[in-house]
Amino acid sequence: MMLRRGFILFLPRLVGLLVVACCSMSIVYMLACTPKGDSQQLALPRVHSPTVKEGYETILQEREEQHRNYIISLKKQIAQLKAELQGRTEQLKNMQNQYPDSLDIRLDHSKPEKAQANLLAFLRSQVDKAEVNSGVKLSTEYAAVPFESFTLQKVYQLETGLTRHPEEKPVRKDKRDELIEVIELAVGSLNKPDGVSKAKPPVYTASDFIEGIYRTEKNKGTLYELTFKGEAKHQFKKIVLFRPFGPVMKVKNENVNMADTLINVIVPLAKRASKFRQFMQNFREMGIQQDGRIHLTVVYFGKEQMNEVKSILENTSKSANFKNFTFIQLNEEFSRGKGLDVGARFWKGNNVVLFFCDVDIYFTADFLNSCRLNTQPGKKVFYPVLFSQYNPSIIYGHHDSIPSLEQQLIIKKETGFWRDFGFGMTCQYRSDFLNIGGFDLDIKGWGGEDVHLYRKYLHSNLMVIRTPVRGLFHLWHEKQCLDELTPEQYKMCMQSKAMNEASHGQLGMLVFKQEIETHLHRQKLSSKKT
Question: Where does the sequence pass through the membrane (predicted)?
């Protein structure tokens, strides 16, 4: 009882001691954690300091002094950065004056100034990061950046939309000035003496320019590949330029001799003898008579109309004295991928350029040179975007007669479109085709095999050249989508069929034909009343 009473009396004292201890610890903590100034510690007002108000005013003044000093320091740093930026700008101007021709900016100066070295190192890194000297692995067929092609007068572009034309003059001043600058720089580079050859080099002009392709990688720069006439027949000059969001830099200047480069045109076929006759007329004129460095491989499925097809081949062989053809017959269901794969593997000669073609394709001799120039074993494969012809019956329905085939091959918005969703026409060296694994032979019938091969190349380290070409046409023919196709193949076939008929405007005129005729009839009635 006494013990309990003593504990009750001691409890208030214990609580008081705990309160005093907590307050002391709080004061010590606040003193220890008070922020320090530049040379002294800022403390709370103490007992012997002036009033509490004066103590806080002192703290605020010291804080204000700290911020003032910090602002002064920032201003000094900004002034230093401005001075450094101005110095770098002057260095860049001096370098541009020292090298007025941007093609003369080499990447291997022996003793460049630090600013020049930094700039050139950056430009070189842009070239290395871009797809210039080698391809990069891509995930899908939509990841490839396509090229656009151009001549002295025209630009052949893919992204036309509904207001631009697939073939047009470069109406935008920036695009026109850009292409003129590139051609002039390339001509200047060709006319610059190399210091090795003693013979007087030919003088190149813009008229020697044949065609070029270009594409822009948004975070790196623009790549240009320009082809000029060479010193002899079948010889060309090729200039590769790169604009790494700065001055244009010469990447490569090489002689390209295509005199001995053979193209093996491989055509899978089943029936369609009349179309094959039309194809052989084009092949004879462009491939045999104008080009002359060509081989034809026909892989025929089944036996129906086979004798007629062989007769067309033999007649062409006799009349044109042409022996460079191979006829392979397969007794099985038609498969485009299988036919192309068999034709490619059947070749027994040296490494050759393979042009995978169809019977409803029209090509020019210029395209065959583009096929050679844009392929390189182990480095490049060529996927041209061809111009697909609309239904002539719709295009020329208001004419008295349909023009001849040659007159129909005009690149205009009303006559056709760039077939940028098709990957069937392609040029590559046979060695690259075999190394990549060829076609997927499990795909039967129409469509799909070309996309699989295209994806294989995209997934490799080969550079895929994808550009519209002015010398490759898909001729219109009525498309039959068979019931035997898979749902995916049937959908692709129907989409292709719809795209082939006519332009948006021409299809619109057909859809609203009744409304147009009704409107015209009302106009006639109203004119009679007045």
Answer: 7-32
Give the Cα separation of 124 and 249 in Å (integer).
Answer: 9
- Asked if residue 2 has pLDDT above 50, the reply is no
- Residues contacting 447, CB < 8 A, separation 6+: 485, 489, 492, 493, 496
**Helix 114-129 to helix 52-98 angle, to the nearest 10 degrees?**
80
C-alpha dist (Å) from residue 317 to 30, 266, 284, 429, 456? 104, 17, 9, 26, 36
Q: What is the distance between the alpha carbons of residues 242 and 254, in angstroms, rounded to a whole number?
A: 15
pTM here is 0.69
- In this structure, what are the phi and psi dihedrals at residue 135, rounded to the nearest 5 degrees? -80, 170
Positive or negative, the CA dihedral 7, 12, 13, 14 is positive
Nearest to 287 by CA among 354, 395, 364: 364
Q: Which residue has the tokens 């239904």?
A: 391
Q: How far apart are CA 254 and CA 225, in angstroms?
A: 11
**Confidence class for position 143, pLDDT limits 50, 70, 90:** confident
Task: Identify whether the C-beta of residue 131 lies closer than 8 Å to the C-beta of residue 223.
Answer: yes
Report the mean per-residue pLDDT for the chain.
82
3-class secondary-structure state, position 159: coil
Q: Where in the chain is the domain with CATH 3.90.550.10?
A: 263-508
Q: Are 223 and 132 in contact (CB under 8 A)?
A: yes
Tokens representing 424? 């069937």
The yes-or-no verdict on residue 96 having pLDDT over 60 is no
* CATH number for the domain running over 263-508: 3.90.550.10
pLDDT, tens digit (0-9, with 9 covering 90-100), for 307-345? 999 999 999 999 999 999 999 999 999 999 999 999 999
Residues 483, 484, 489, 494, Cα dihedral to 10°: -20
Amino acid at 285: E
Cβ–Cβ under 8 Å, residues 472 and 386: yes
Q: Which of 488, 134, 475 is nearest to 272 (CA)?
A: 475
* 362/348 Cα distance (integer angstroms): 27
